[in-house]
Amino acid sequence: MKIIVLMKQVANKDAILRINKSETWIEEGDLSYEVNESDGYALEEALRLKEKHGGGEVVVCSLGPQRVKSVIKDALARGADRAIHVVADDTVQLGPYAAAKVLSEAIKDEQADLVLTGLQSDDNGYAQTGVILAELLGLPHATIVIEVDASGDGLRVKRELESGWYQWYAMTRPALLTIQSGISQIRYATLKGIMAAKKKEIKELAPSADALGAAAHQRITKVYFPQKTKQTQFLGDGDAKAGAAQLAEKLRTEARIF
Amino acid sequence: MPNGIIVFAEHRGGAFNKTSFEAIAAAQQLGASLGQPVSAVVLGTDAARAGEVVAYKLDRVVSVENPKLADYTPDGYADAMEKAVRSLDPQFVIMPHTYLVRDYAPKLAARFGKDLISDCVRASVADGAVTFSRRIFQGKIDADVVANGEPPVFATFQSGAYRADQAARGGDAAAVESLPVEVGEVRMQPEEPFQEVKQAVDLTKADTIIAIGRGIKGQEHIALAQQLADVLGGEIAASRPICDAGWLPIDRQIGSSGQTVTPKLYIALGISGAIQHLVGMKNASTIVAVNKDPEAPIFDIADYGIVGDLFEVLPVLTEEIKKLKG
Questions:
Q1: Which tens digit of pLDDT belongs to each residue from A141-167?
Q2: Alpha-carbon dihedral A206, A207, A212, A213, rounded to 10 degrees
Q3: What is the ipTM of this complex?
Q4: Which CATH code is given to the segment(s) B203-325?
Q5: Is B240 in Cβ contact with A241 (below 8 Å)?
Q6: Min Cα–Cα distance to chain B from A244, Å
Q7: Which fold has domain B5-180?
């Protein structure tokens, strides 16, 4: 089974974000990056499917500037067989349609049995690129998948619905699935894996001007910190212990909890 | 010439999703600002499904019909909605940002060579131009977004962005119009939806909830939060990553994929406040947040906040409450 995993690099979850001077994006200069959380689970699922079904190939594909190589190398160290890096320096204003178009050009000749990706990115959070890509590739898709059964010719996937409900779908293959975080425990890269990764192929591609320019249907005009909806009383003024003591008092006298 | 706004009203077997009515409210406000009529579309096998929507103040209610729409599938819905949008030729297509819409609407937009302006929290109109606002970086930052190019513009609104009870009622649409459509090959077959296990813990009944997030760092530290829960007579709960890691069972997860709660007191410890979590708890009467990051979105909805290390806060808070309770 040949599986392509689309992985995005995003700002580190714990990074303190600052708005850039032109108020059009965050300040990226000193930012640290990591793999988009659900994409990490998509890779893990691909590796497990390959192991379970006696081989095949897991190909990682990532779009972005040279810094995304760290995500690619990490994926190769965990067990992906090779990688495609679609090199593009500025992807901030790249909408999900254009991103899907670029990715479709990069992987359409691969003839994969499955294309996996995370359910949404932790930065832009469009939650669309995978589904649009499926449409461009002519593949059926399922989103927010938490279990994959690829034992027969087709596919059975368990999808998460809202409020604790689930549903199985039987699908034809090839297909594209977007994977929910938490589907399994993610493996660590072993030293052996890290060494082996050095010999694995990373193919660099340039996106076509046509795809990159695929009409931006939405343009970010301004970014800013959300307006508060509540007047928060901040307690302790930097002293967490003092804050805790004040909080106990307020919960009794103001909120009347006890 | 494209005109008007259409709202996709989502239902499963005739039971409408509450966010559909919020989307109607959003579309009505947009329609009022732009001077454009608002119509609703309901997908199904027959017009009987659309009944509940007729009560709202809408220009038209269109029942988009095909036998293949009996159960939701992304292929079926994308095909049917594509036909409906081409037939109704609107300026805007407004949808609730539900799991179902997330599943098929990007495919629909792609048929028009477009993407969705997704998960919006607001829309404002100035000089006839619409600016959509959406949360990015998991709720930490807002982005104003404008649509480029030809209509239709596809936009989805986040659950809770508009209030369902603000959707105007009193329909001009006297009857539901049937719009039979062709639906092509459907490549997926849904089985019956189900609930995993009967929820062992019903957090919706708890008056006090102590919720932990990534900041708790390790399973062995949960006992500290449990001690606070014990002195307050509350239940322990968590954000998704904690349950994903197996540190607490999934029936203690709060948020869009877990339980939605409205306790008297909600104490969020080391939870940054991604929107998926906030939708599950933002209506609690009193919200306390403890987080190291002063910009964490959880503080936007907190009544009381402590910026600092939860491991310094927890023992003191537990001890002080114990003392005050005597």
A1: 999 999 999 988 889 999 998 877 899
A2: 90
A3: 0.91
A4: 3.40.50.1220
A5: no
A6: 5
A7: Rossmann fold (3.40.50)
